[in-house]
Amino acid sequence: MSLPVRNSINLLLLNEKKQLLLMCADDPTTTTVDGKYHGRFWFPIGGKIEPGESLEEAALRELFEETGLAPEEVELGPIVWFGEFDLVLSGTPTRLKQRFIVAKTRQNSVSLSNLTQEEQAVIQKTAWFSLEEIKNCPDVIYPVLLPQYLPDILSGNYPAQPLEIDLGTQPR
Questions:
Q1: Which residues have C-beta within 8 Å of that of residue 22, sequence separation ≥ 6?
Q2: What dotted CATH number matches 5-161?
Q3: 101 beta partners
Q4: Is the pLDDT score of 172 beyond 80?
Q5: In whole angstroms, what is the distance from residue 110 CA to residue 128 CA?
Q6: What's the CA gap between 63 and 104, in Å, rounded?
Q7: What's the first-to-final CA gap in the chain, in angstroms?
Q8: CA quadruple 21, 11, 138, 152: dihedral positive or negative?
Q9: What CA–CA distance (Å, rounded) separates 110 from 18?
Q10: C-alpha dihedral over 83, 89, 94, 99, to 10 degrees?
Q11: What pTM was computed for the model?
Q12: How confident is the model at residue 91 (pLDDT cuts 50, 70, 90)?
């Protein structure tokens, strides 16, 4: 069975303290393909690439929708990771193809006032996380392998070519 594909861009948005901005969602209609829901979860900002949008255009649109930050408040860096996995997204089995782009900002205050209606229903909050806070968070953070790959990004050691990472890894 071939699933509908959703191409998306995720921003690894870092502040000057080398903290990563994550969003918190609680959406029981988003599960593993076998129907398992792990409770509320955190993830980098980002979303679907709309038809005709470039990766950069999609990243900047999602940035504004999910943080209120304008393009001039952020410096986009390279695409550092990519991967794909299957999940049930808002009740629909979907193949998610994600790319992750580094972005930096001097802003620490963000706003959820520009969320889409669909996002408003499931997004609870955002927060800046240090690497240690990510490692010790009691909630699930996607991608699950984030603590393994994030240290290189925080130190500015970007891969020469985007790395394929296992986005299908599930929490224990």
A1: 42, 43, 44, 45, 126, 127, 128, 129, 134, 141
A2: 3.90.79.10
A3: 11, 79
A4: no
A5: 10
A6: 11
A7: 27
A8: negative
A9: 16
A10: -20
A11: 0.94
A12: confident
CA–CA distance, 59 with 85 (Å, rounded to integer): 20
Q: Give the pLDDT band of residue 1 (cuts 50, 70, 90).
A: low
Which secondary-structure segment (H or E) carries 61? helix 55-67
Give the strand pairing for 41-44 and 20-25.
Answer: antiparallel
Euclidean distance between CA atoms 88 and 71, whole angstroms: 32
Please provide residue 7's backbone torsions phi and psi, each rounded to the nearest 5 degrees. -85, 130
Q: What's the pLDDT at 33?
A: 85
- pLDDT tens digit string along 41-53? 999 999 999 999 9
**What pLDDT score does 134 carry?**
97
Q: Cis ω on the peptide bond leading into residue 143 (within 30° of 0)?
A: yes
User: Which two tokens mark 36?
Assistant: 């398992």
Instruction: Judge contact between 49 and 99, C-beta under 8 A.
Output: no
